[in-house]
Write a structure and sequence with these properties.
It is flat, with a radius of gyration of 16 Å. The chain is mostly beta strands and 88 residues long.
Amino acid sequence: PNGPLRKAKKGSIEKFLFERYSLYVTYKNRTHIAYTCHEPWEFQDAIARIEKNSLTEFYNLGISDLLEPDLVHISKGVQVKTWSAEAV
């Protein structure tokens, strides 16, 4: 951790990244959605030392340095309630 514990502010990149209340999955060639409910995430800024990152190297996402991320957070997580997935 590299800073105080905090919650995402309205309009912030952290709000966009953390506060998701639905998830998607493909099952039998169909996309399904499931809605979720949870308390707001509590997180801290962090520093990461990455030695190898092959997750995105084949997708040409415009990331200039895969070993030096622009944004790093750490969290203990949240308890999530999820409803059944439905085909969309």
